[in-house]
Specification:
10 helices, 60s Ribosomal Protein L30, Chain: A, 7-stranded mixed sheet, 6-stranded mixed sheet, about 25% strand, 2 domains, homodimer, alpha+beta, globular, about 30% helix
Chain lengths: ~325, ~325
C-alpha cells in the first residue's frame, strides 16, 4: 500500500510557480487585504488582526488534498491529526497560542468509517493542544480537508517571518527528514494505531511524520526576544528564502548542525521536508536565554547558521557548499 | 452549457443523512467542542466565542465543490462572489458584522485564468461588504473553495437559530426560488459580466442566484429584538426544522406570503432553495419596529407565518396544506 503520494507530483508542468501565483493573487486583491486593524495580511504563516488595544488574533487556513498530501488509503486518524497539527503550527509560528479550529471536510458518500477515524485524529490533536473545535462543514467530493485556526497573542508580541537582522543566529527545533523516509517506506508500512504512534515520535520517523509536535509552551517563552520565525512546511531552503526575501540579507547554514533522521538524504531533507519544526532567528546575546527556555520546555533546539549580509541562502557541509533538491511547490 | 449541477446529485444512496452525520461527529468530538469561552459551538449557522467582557467573535466555514455547488464551466468571478456571500451570510445570521475572511482554493494546475476570475469575484463581494481577505491557501486538485469568515458582535447580542418562542411571528427577507429557475435555465444561459449582473439582482434570477445579498445593516438594526434567526441555505422547510428542533414547538407558514420568483415551482422553492435570505422570528409587539427597520435599510421583508405549540412544520396555501420537495442534503 502507498500511504503518501505528494512527491510523485512535484515535477509536473507549471505555468506559474506557487510563490508567483500567490503574489499575483495578493496583488489582485489589493486594498481588500489591508485595513487599519490588519497588522499582518496574507503572505506570512498566518494573519494578525488587532482586536483591542492589547490583544491580537492570529488566523490561518490550510488545505490537505487526497493524492497530494495523503493517499487514498491513509488511515483517517493519522490524516486528521496531521491536518490539525500542521495548521496549528502556522499559528504557533507567529508566536500565538492556538485556541479554536474549524474543520471543513469533503469526502465521498461511502466514506463514513473513514470520517469517524478522521474525527478521532482531530479530537486527539485538539485535546493535546487544548484547542476547541468550534465549527465545520461536510461536503461531498474527492477527499480533502481545510482547517482554519484562530490563536491569541497578547501585547502585539507576534513574530513575523521576514524581520531577520544581519548577524542573527538561525535556530531550528527538532529533527528534519521524516518526510523523505516516510515516502520511501510507506509502500510496505502497516499503519499502527494512533495511540501507539503517539508514544514513538522521538524514535519512529512514521510517527514523527504523521504526528508533528505543536510547540506551544516553547514559543510562549521565546516570543519576546526572537527576531523572526516560521515553520518548515515547504523545505528549509524555501522557508529561509521567504525569511530573507524582503531584506538585502542572506543566510548561511552549517548542514552538520541540522538534526536529520538519515544524513544520507541531506539534499532532500534540506529542500523538501515538511516536518512543521520551527525555524527562527535571534541575536547572539540571547543564546543563553534560548538554551534555558529550550531546556525548561524539553525542546530539542540547535543553532544551525547565521543571517549574513551576502544575499541568498547557502548550505555548507564540512566546508563544502551543497545544493538542496528544490523545495516542494503545490503548483 | 450547464452551469449548475448540484440538483442532479440529490437522490444518490446514503447510509446516514447529513444531519445525522453531523450530529454524530459533534457527539464524537465531545468536550473538545466545549469550553468556558465557547458561547455557541458547532451546529448553528456559526460559532460564537467570547473574546473579552463585551465582544464576541463569530466564526464559520463553508466549502463549495465543483459538480456539487457549481459546474466546471461556471465563470470564476460568479463562483468567487457566491462563495464569499454565502459564507458571510452565516455570520450575519448570528447577527454579527463580518470583518475578515480566509479563502482556501483548490484547482487544477491549468486553471490560472479561472483563478484570477475567482479572485475578482472574491474581491468584489468583500469590497461590497467591507470585509478584508486576511489569508488563504492554494492547493492542487479538483476545483473547490473553502471560505472561513470571522465577524464581531458586541455585548452578547448574537442571535441563535433555536431560541424561538411560541406565538412569535416568522419573517423572511427577499424572494425565494432563484435556485430552481437557475438550475432549469443554465443549460442555455450565456454568462454575463459580474458588473452587469450586480445591477440586475432585483429582476434577474440568475443575478439573484449568483450574487446573494449580505444584509449587514438590516441585521445590526434588528438584532436586539429578534428571538431567533438563520439563513436559507438548505431550503425553508429544513431551516424551520432546525429552528424548532430543540423545542416542543412547531411552525405554520402561509405560502401566499412567501415571495417567490415563480409560484409554479412552490414545492421546490419551499424545500430546496439556497438563496441565503434571512429567516427570523420576533414577538408580534415588535412588528412595527421591524417594518420601520426594514424600510430604513431598504430590505424587502414579509411576515410568512407563526411559531405554534403544535410540533412540526406545516405549509398552507390558500387554506390547503402543501408538502415541499425534500430539502437539499449534502450527503
Amino acid at each position: 500500500m502507498r500511504y503518501l503520494t505528494r512527491w510523485l507530483k512535484i515535477s509536473r508542468c507549471k505555468l506559474m510557480n506557487e510563490t508567483e501565483l500567490i503574489h499575483q493573487i495578493i496583488a489582485d486583491l489589493g486594498e481588500q487585504t489591508q485595513g487599519e486593524t490588519v497588522m499582518v495580511g496574507p503572505g506570512d504563516d498566518a494573519a494578525v488582526v488587532q482586536w483591542n488595544t492589547t490583544d491580537n488574533i492570529v488566523v490561518t487556513t490550510d488545505t490537505f488534498v487526497v493524492d497530494r498530501h495523503f493517499s487514498e488509503d491513509t488511515p483517517g486518524d493519522l490524516v486528521g491529526y496531521r491536518c490539525i497539527a500542521a495548521t496549528l503550527s502556522d499559528v504557533v509560528a507567529m508566536s500565538a497560542r492556538p485556541c479554536y479550529v474549524t474543520v471543513a471536510l469533503t469526502v465521498e458518500t461511502n466514506s463514513q468509517d473513514w470520517v469517524f477515524e478522521f474525527v478521532k485524529g482531530v479530537r486527539t490533536c485538539c485535546a493535546e493542544t487544548n484547542t476547541r473545535i468550534i465549527g465545520g462543514n461536510m461536503a461531498c467530493g474527492n477527499k480533502s480537508a481545510t482547517v482554519s485556526a484562530i490563536g491569541l497573542v497578547p501585547d502585539s508580541t507576534y513574530v513575523r517571518r521576514d524581520t531577520v537582522c544581519n548577524g542573527d543566529d538561525i535556530w531550528l527545533t527538532g529533527t528534519l527528514g521524516a518526510t523523505k523516509l516516510a515516502i520511501s517506506a510507506n509502500v510496505d508500512w502497516q499503519p499502527k494505531p494512533l495511540e501507539e504512534l503517539l508514544q514513538k515520535r522521538d524514535n519512529c520517523f512514521m510517527a514523527a511524520y504523521f504526528l508533528p509536535r505543536v510547540r506551544i509552551e516553547f514559543v510562549e517563552k521565546i516570543r519576546s526576544y526572537v527576531t523572526a520565525m516560521t515553520d518548515i512546511s515547504d523545505g528549509l531552503q524555501t522557508e529561509l528564502e521567504h525569511m530573507i526575501r524582503s531584506s538585502n540579507l542572506g543566510a548561511r547554514i552549517d548542514v552538520e548542525q541540522v538534526n536529520m533522521w538519515d544524513r544520507r538524504h541531506k539534499a532532500h531533507t534540506l529542500g523538501c521536508d515538511d516536518s512543521y519544526e520551527l525555524l527562527f532567528t535571534l541575536p547572539k546575546a540571547k543564546r543563553t536565554k534560548l538554551e534555558q527556555n529550550a531546556s525548561e520546555t524539553n525542546t530539542e533546539c540547535r543553532c544551525i547558521g547565521e543571517i549574513t549580509s551576502t544575499r541568498g541562502v547557502k548550505f555548507f557541509d564540512n566546508g563544502q557548499e551543497i545544493f538542496p533538491v528544490s523545495g516542494y511547490s503545490h503548483f
